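Structure (tokenized):
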């Protein structure tokens, strides 16, 4: 188990008879497996758009309902997300504004 997720033991599972809802005895091995399964269910978040491990900042803005609807329709047609379309449009705008 990753050290950053390790908690100090509060119960001596060798000495205590702790059972789960199905009546199975909770051992150190059982607890380790349960923690690994739980951590596997936790999403790590969205992948970085830039360098691996880097944080991608969020930019949000408001648009009229009609613009949002059109963006959602176009995104669905293209098999993309509204975020992808907005990101591409902003990058194109900034690239064109520099030249």
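Design, position by position:
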């Amino acid at each position: 188990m990753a050290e950053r997720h390790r908690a100090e033991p509060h119960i001596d599972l060798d000495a205590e008879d702790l059972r789960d809802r199905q009546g199975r005895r909770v051992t150190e091995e059982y607890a380790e497996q349960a923690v690994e399964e739980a951590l596997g269910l936790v999403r790590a978040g969205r992948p970085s758009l830039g360098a691996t491990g880097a944080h991608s900042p969020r930019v949000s803005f408001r648009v009229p309902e009609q613009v949002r609807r059109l963006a959602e329709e176009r995104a669905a047609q293209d098999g993309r997300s509204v975020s992808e379309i907005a990101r591409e449009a902003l990058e194109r705008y900034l690239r064109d504004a520099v030249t």
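Reviewer-requested clarification: Residues 65-98 form one domain. The chain has two domains: 3-41, 65-98.
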